[in-house]
TrEMBL record, chain A:
<comment type="subunit">
    <text>Monomer. Interacts with PqqE.</text>
</comment>
<dbReference type="GO" id="GO:0048038">
    <property type="term" value="F:quinone binding"/>
</dbReference>
<dbReference type="InterPro" id="IPR022479">
    <property type="entry name" value="PqqD_bac"/>
</dbReference>
<dbReference type="InterPro" id="IPR041881">
    <property type="entry name" value="PqqD_sf"/>
</dbReference>
<dbReference type="Pfam" id="PF05402">
    <property type="entry name" value="PqqD"/>
</dbReference>
<protein>
    <submittedName>
        <fullName>Pyrroloquinoline quinone biosynthesis protein PqqD</fullName>
    </submittedName>
</protein>
<comment type="pathway">
    <text>Cofactor biosynthesis; pyrroloquinoline quinone biosynthesis.</text>
</comment>
<dbReference type="InterPro" id="IPR008792">
    <property type="entry name" value="PQQD"/>
</dbReference>
<keyword id="KW-0884">PQQ biosynthesis</keyword>
Automatic annotation (TrEMBL), chain B:
<dbReference type="GO" id="GO:0005506">
    <property type="term" value="F:iron ion binding"/>
</dbReference>
<dbReference type="GO" id="GO:0018189">
    <property type="term" value="P:pyrroloquinoline quinone biosynthetic process"/>
</dbReference>
<feature type="binding site">
    <location>
        <position position="40"/>
    </location>
    <ligand>
        <name>[4Fe-4S] cluster</name>
    </ligand>
</feature>
<comment type="similarity">
    <text>Belongs to the radical SAM superfamily. PqqE family.</text>
</comment>
<dbReference type="GO" id="GO:0009975">
    <property type="term" value="F:cyclase activity"/>
</dbReference>
<dbReference type="InterPro" id="IPR023885">
    <property type="entry name" value="4Fe4S-binding_SPASM_dom"/>
</dbReference>
<dbReference type="GO" id="GO:1904047">
    <property type="term" value="F:S-adenosyl-L-methionine binding"/>
</dbReference>
<comment type="function">
    <text>Catalyzes the cross-linking of a glutamate residue and a tyrosine residue in the PqqA protein as part of the biosynthesis of pyrroloquinoline quinone (PQQ).</text>
</comment>
<keyword id="KW-0004">4Fe-4S</keyword>
Length: 103, 381
């Protein structure tokens, strides 16, 4: 498959998008303008790591370790999921500064 | 680590199915507004400033809403920025985990105020445009210069990085501008636009003869919106509120009475929808005397049309009963004179032909508005 997001890009939820646990219904929800989305358990694990600090690479590493899944598979799932969110404007992916990438 | 809570075993079987949990709450913080739109969704009898809930009560209501399971709060009015404690309310909503949506007319809101609202943590801003051009906006809102001010607010909202929705209510004087509304939303960098056909309750019902479009205009509008939706997929979300006087099926009003949302008026009454007070037989509980969960679960007004048991045979035997939810109770009241009747917008209603005849007659009406206003000078403000 073709990667659509840079692996060293740093994703964060767009302004006006929030992930929270919904106590009343016992589920995680992604809140957006006039939308309440119910991410599945895999999506929730990815979204919890979308914090504007971790790179996509780092997210994949952590998930592959935690769930002992082949890194390639995780990378592909994360890419498809985050690219879909980016297209809907729910996340923004920033590229790290050149200096950061070199260090 | 488990993501899903184990279902708790139930010993008692409830007498009736547990009511659903509401997702959204419309908080009408005030009825004060600089604009006078003739289709305003506020009741004809507007609440005055001296009967508005105080800050403390609103904060309690927001806390109770969060506990009840409400996820999104729509801070509306009137013009919500007329409340000086708006930022305090937003901060509180953020604290208790509520997603906050500001619904503003964008007139009399300075850049400084917007920054304060943004800093307080607002999640999303909805800005109304009464027309796609200054001429139409200023005429419909009866406020000279309104359009220019709205444009400035829209730009400031985007400069602050906040997501923006453009709200447009369409009717005979501006329905031809739908393509221009969409262009305006794109030019203002909005991600979403609401194109809502005027719904005929309260002020809009009074002004129906000046607002009602023709059948041709309505079907043209539906077509334009559908084409734009396809063309702008991924660029602009277009949410439409459809006109029902010319429809075959009624709208699933509020997605069912007392099912997903609730509305708190400036003076603290809790309503299943903003027009519910037009049903005279209902008694609405007030947050001054009851907690929000108590109203949601136990008030007679919320239980009056909840579910499908209240329905007339025509609706109860219909395969669409849990799609349309019987349509709109306020419309049944307004047209059939009975809130428990089948919505006359449904093609199976015995009054359907009458509703269509009303629309066709009103589409030929005069263009003179009975603008929204307080009937007596507001001495309290």
């Amino acid at each position: 498959m073709t990667a659509t997001l840079a692996a060293n890009g740093v994703p964060r939820l767009a302004r006006g998008v929030r992930l929270r646990h919904d106590e009343a219904r016992g589920q995680w929800v992604l809140l957006a303008p006039e939308r309440v989305l119910n991410p599945d358990p895999v999506a929730v694990e990815i979204l919890k790591k979308v914090d504007g600090a971790r790179s996509i690479d780092a997210i994949v590493d952590e998930l592959a370790t935690t769930f002992t899944v082949e890194r390639q598979t995780v990378a592909s799932d994360v890419d498809v999921f985050l690219a879909g969110l980016a297209e809907k404007g729910l996340i923004e992916v920033t590229s790290p500064l050149v200096g950061d990438a070199a260090s | 680590m488990s993501l899903v809570e184990e279902p708790r075993s139930r010993v008692e079987v409830p007498a009736r199915p547990a009511p659903p949990i509401p997702y959204g709450m419309l908080a009408e913080l005030t009825h004060r507004c600089p604009l006078q739109c003739p289709y305003c969704s506020n009741p004809v009898e507007l609440d005055r400033r001296n009967v508005e809930l105080d800050t403390e009560t609103w904060l309690r209501v927001f806390s109770e809403a969060a506990k009840l399971g409400v996820l999104q709060v729509h801070l509306s009015g009137g013009e919500p920025t007329a409340r000086r404690d708006l930022e305090q309310m937003i901060r509180h909503c953020v604290e208790v985990g509520l997603y906050t949506n500001l619904i503003t007319a964008g007139v009399g809101v300075t850049a400084e105020r917007l920054r304060a609202i943004s800093d307080a943590g607002i999640d999303h801003v909805q800005l109304s445009f009464q027309g796609a051009t200054a001429e139409v906006t200023d005429k419909v809102s009866n406020f000279r210069g309104a359009h220019e001010r709205k444009l400035a607010v829209a730009r400031e909202v985007r400069r602050l990085g906040l997501p923006l929705t453009i709200n447009s209510v369409v009717h005979r004087a501006n329905i031809h501008q739908i393509p221009d509304f969409i262009e305006l939303a794109l030019a203002l960098d909005a991600r979403r636009i609401e194109i809502a056909h005027s719904q005929y309750y309260g002020w809009a019902l009074r002004n129906r003869g000046a607002l009602m479009p023709t059948r041709e205009q309505v079907f043209w509008a539906l077509d334009v919106v559908e084409q734009a939706r396809v063309r702008l997929k991924g660029v602009l979300t277009i949410d439409a509120v459809v006109p029902d006087y010319y429809a075959k099926y009624p709208k699933p009003c509020m997605n069912g009475w007392g099912r997903q949302s609730l509305n708190v008026t400036p003076s603290g009454k809790v309503l299943p929808c903003h027009a519910a007070e037009t049903i005279p037989s209902l008694d609405f509980w007030n947050v001054r005397e009851h907690s929000l969960p108590d109203v949601w679960l136990n008030s007679p007004a919320f239980n009056a049309f909840r579910g499908t048991d209240w329905m007339p045979d025509l609706c109860r035997s219909c395969e669409r009963k849990e799609i349309d939810w019987g349509g709109c109770r306020c419309q049944a009241m307004a047209i059939a004179g009975d809130a428990a009747a089948t919505d006359p917008a449904c093609h199976l209603s015995p009054l359907h032909a009458d509703l269509l005849a009303l629309a066709e007659a009103d589409a030929e009406g005069t263009d003179i508005y009975d603008y929204r206003r307080y009937f007596q000078p507001d001495r309290a403000s």
